[in-house]
Amino acid sequence: MNIINMLQSSDFTTLIPELFLGAIAFIMLFLGIKYKNPKLYSAMAFISLLIAIGLLLVFDSSVSQTYSGILQINDFGLFFAIIMIISSLYMVLPSTREVHEKPELFYATLLFVNIAMIVAAFSFNLIVIFIAFEGVSIGTYIMTAYGKSRRNLEAATKYFFTGTIATSFILFGSAFFYISAGTFNLQNVAALQSHSVLIALIFLFVGFGFKLALVPMHQWAIDAYDGSPNSVSAFLSTGTKVLAFLIILRIFLVGFSLESVDVYYLFIIISIITMTYGNIAAISETNLKRVFAYSSVAQAGYLILVLAVVGYNYSANANELAILAGMYYSLVYIFMKGGAFFSVGLVKKENAKIDDLSGLAWKSPAMAISIIVILISLAGVPPTAGFFAKYYLFLSLISGQLWWLAVIAIVNSAISVFYYLRLIVIMFRRDGDNQFDLSPSVYYPVAIAAIMMFALVALIYEFPTIQTYVLGLFGV
C-alpha cells in the first residue's frame, strides 16, 4: 500500500488523533533540550488536546469498524474519549504552578497517557485494552512521583505496587476469558464455558476494580490522591477513573452479556459497600484531601449502580436509561471532583486540614461560593448537575424494579451531606488567621468547575432518550 492509499484508508484516519498527539509529545521532548519554560509546554499540551478533540470529531464520526473489529469507532466510545481528554484539558494549565523541573517530560507524558486512553475507549479486544490501560498506568505512575518529594514518592510507590497487583488480575482474567471464549475479542461471543468464565469474571472485576478504587480495593487511591500534586490528584480521580468505569462497563456488558445476570449480586454488594464505606470514612476524616479521596471512593460506588441495573436486566428502557445516566454522571464527575481537589490548593500548607478553610468565606466570598456549589453538587443537591446525574441514575434503579437499592443509594447521598456541610460551616467561621492562595492557577479551575455545575444542566436536553423516557414514566 503506497502512502496516498494509506492516508485514504479508514484504518489510518482513525489513528490520526493519536499520531498527532504522539508527534507533539516528541516535539516537546526535543524542545526540552533547550527550553525549560513550563508555560510553553502547558500551552502546547492544551492546544494539542483541543485539536485532538476536533480530529476525533472529524475522522472518527463516520467510521464504524476498523482493524478487524479490534477497534470499533462509535458514539459511545467517542463520548468517553472526548470527556477523558477534557479531564486532561482541565488540569493541564493549572498544573504549571506544580511543575518546575523538566516540564517537557511531564506534559509529553500527559499526551502519551491521552493516546492510550483514546485507544482504550475504542477497543473491544482484551489484549489491546490491557496494553492501553497499562500505558495510562505507567504514565500516571510518573506523574504521581513527579514532584519528587517524600510524599510524592511514597504515593507513587503505593500506587505502583497496587497497580502491579491489579495488572496480574487483569492478565489472569484475560487468559481465562480466552479459555472460555477462544478469543480475546469481546464481541460476537456465542457461548462461554461455565467453569472458566466465573474465574474470568472475578479476576477482571477485581483487576479493574483496583483501578476504579472499589472497596476493598481502594486504599491505594486514598494514599495516592493525598500524596500527589493537586493537579495530578484531580486527573487520577477523574480521567483514569472514568476510563476504568468505561472498560468495566464494556467488558461486562459486551464480553459477558450472556452471563450478566449471574454477577448481578456481585455488582450490588460491591456498590453498596463502596458508597457506604466511602461516605462513612469521610465523616471522621480531618485531612482535607483525604476527605475528597474518600468521597471519590463513594462516587465509584454510585457508578457501579449502572452495572447493577443492567445485570438485573428487568427492561431494555431501564438498561438504556442507566447507561446514559452513567455517561452523563461521568462528564459531571470530572468537573465536580476535579474542582474539589483543585480547591485544596487554596490552603498554603503541604498537609491541609479541613479547619484550614476557616475564614475563607470572609476573605474570598466568590471562591467560597464556588466551593459550596461544587460540594452541594457532589452531595446531589438541586439545581446542580450533580443532582440531575444522581436523579437519572436513581431513576433507572426505580424503573428497573430495584427501588430498594435506590433507597440505599439515596440514604448514602444524604450521609454525604454531613461532611460536605461541615466544610461549608468551617468556611464561614471567623476563628483563626488562615492565609489562602488566591492566584489564578487556583482560582480559575475552582470557578470553572462551579460554573460547569450549572452549565451541564443544559446538557440533559441533549439526551432525548432520557427526556422522552422520563416523561413517559409520568404519563406526560
Q: In what range is the share of β-strand residues?
A: under 5%
Q: How much helicity do the residues have?
A: over 70%
Q: Given the C-alpha coordinates, what overall shape results?
A: globular
Largest sheet, in brief, is:
none
Low-confidence stretches: 1-9
- Which structural class fits the helix and strand makeup? mainly alpha
Measure the end-to-end span.
Answer: 57 Å
Summed over residues and divided by their number, the pLDDT gives a mean of 81
Q: Report the radius of gyration as a whole number of Å.
A: 22 Å
Number of helices: 20
Number of strands: 0
> Secondary-structure element order, as H and E?
HHHHHHHHHHHHHHHHHHHH
List keywords for this structure.
73% helix; mainly alpha; disordered N terminus; single chain; globular; 476 residues
Short description:
The chain has 476 residues and is mainly α. The protein has 20 helices and no strands.
Task: Outline the structure in words.
There is one protein chain. This protein has 476 residues and is an all-alpha fold. The protein has a domain at 286-476. Helices cover 73% and strands 0% of the residues. The chain is built from 20 helices and no strands. The chain has helices at residues 3-8, 10-13, 16-31, 38-59, 75-92, 103-122, 126-144, 150-181, 194-212, 219-227, 230-255, 264-283, 288-312, 316-343, 360-363, 365-379, 385-399, 403-427, 440-455, 464-473. α4 (38-59) runs antiparallel to α5, α5 (75-92) packs parallel to α14 (316-343) and α16 crosses α19 (440-455). The chain is globular. The termini are far apart. Mean pLDDT is 81; it is low at 1-9.
